[in-house]
Amino acid sequence: MAPILFTRGAPSLDIIDQEGLRDAAQQAFTKDPGGTFAYGTSVGYVPLREWIAEKHGVDVNQVLVTNGSMQADAFLFELLVSPGDDVVVEAPTYDRTLLNLRQRGAKVTAIDLQTDGIDVDAFQTLLESGTRPSLAHIIPNFQNPAGYTLSAEKRARLLALAAQHDFVLFEDDPYYEVRFEGTPLPTMLSQDENNRVVYASSFSKTMCPGIRCGYLVGPADVIAKVQKIATNTYISPNMVAQSIVNEFCRSGRIDQSVATVRVALRERKDALVNALKRELPDAVYTAPQGGYFMWVELPGVSIEKLFPVAKEHGVEFVKGSDFLLEGGDNAMRMAFSGVTPEQIDEGITRLATAVRSL
Question: Which residues pair with 136 in a beta bridge?
């Protein structure tokens, strides 16, 4: 029995534009072999940097392209977070973010995530109590792991709080393009009038995970400091990958790729919701409008006990407790991006059998 994996937040091979990536690679190698095969500079492949700047309506010196958005995160944390610094995150939040911040010795405060984003009232209360975070990490669209989206009202309030209390609002936004329902909301970056937002995104979710290409957009002085860290880290990032991404974006194939991914993700989300309704009617969740993940709670079920039993039944997920400083024992993250609707249906059937066996 082949395992069905709800574990990885990545598009499956069948929805990746393999032909388009091959064409983009050929164009990159042919059009600009010098720029593609050389070391380059620490800000990234210059034409791609220019494309990103144009996309976000910013000056090119506000952009830095990295080897994946996780490296962008790590560079920003290295610049802004020192041991003992207060940092605010969502609860739950991406497990690697928690790991990185704790390794830096940050004092992490996790504020509850609601279905329309972080509890801004609780955040404001924390700030008014005297806590002075150097940074607040927010995943605004189809949050990893919960799948929730930050409302327009809360975006405006966070921008005001960042300006008032002088902290960096880190808008970590790799899922923005993969909305399959509802109306897109403007980024906080596009509404920032006080230079408090640093924005990160990635091409892994719209092109392919293996491309490992992400970027930061922010105030020019912040990006210049991050550039120094990048220079000392690797001289330059992967020029071959970034040149391919540049050709893929400029050819328009990126738009086709995003459209394909959106259609597939909506089908997979629907399959997950329908299977849960049928097999686990007591499950608690909010169906996302985009992205790769859904946060599922099973009242009265210990996920710690369920996890190994589910694995024996041929289905795997990520425990909710991995994304929290404490709690989450009845929750799990279900990634529906890398499995077909048929696999989802079978996987939830197996999961329900495992739950009943407890």
Answer: 88, 169
Q: What is the pLDDT of residue 230?
A: 95
Show me where the domains of the chain are located: 4-15+255-357, 18-253
DSSP line for 279-338: H-TT-B----SBSSEEEEE-TT--HHHHHHHHHHTTEE-EEGGGGSSS--TTEEEEE-TT
pLDDT at 172 over 90: yes
Q: DSSP assignment of 49-78, as one string?
A: HHHHHHHHT--GGGEEEESSHHHHHHHHHH
The pLDDT score that the predictor gives to residue 1 is 85
Beta bridge partners of 197: 169
Cβ atoms within 10 Å of 158's Cβ, excluding its own:
24
Cα-based distances in Å from 34 to 45, 66, 239, 279, 348 = 11, 19, 10, 56, 50
Q: Which residues contact 34 (CB under 8 A, 6 or more apart)?
A: none
In the chain, which ranges are continuous DSSP H helix? 18-31, 33-37, 46-56, 69-80, 95-103, 120-128, 152-165, 188-191, 220-234, 239-250, 253-279, 303-312, 341-357
Tell me the residue type at 248. Answer: F
- Residues 308-313 have a mean pLDDT of 97
- Classify domain 18-253 by CATH number: 3.40.640.10
CATH topology of domain 4-15+255-357: Aspartate Aminotransferase, domain 1 (3.90.1150)
Query: Is residue 205 very low, low, confident or very high in pLDDT (cuts 50, 70, 90)?
Result: confident
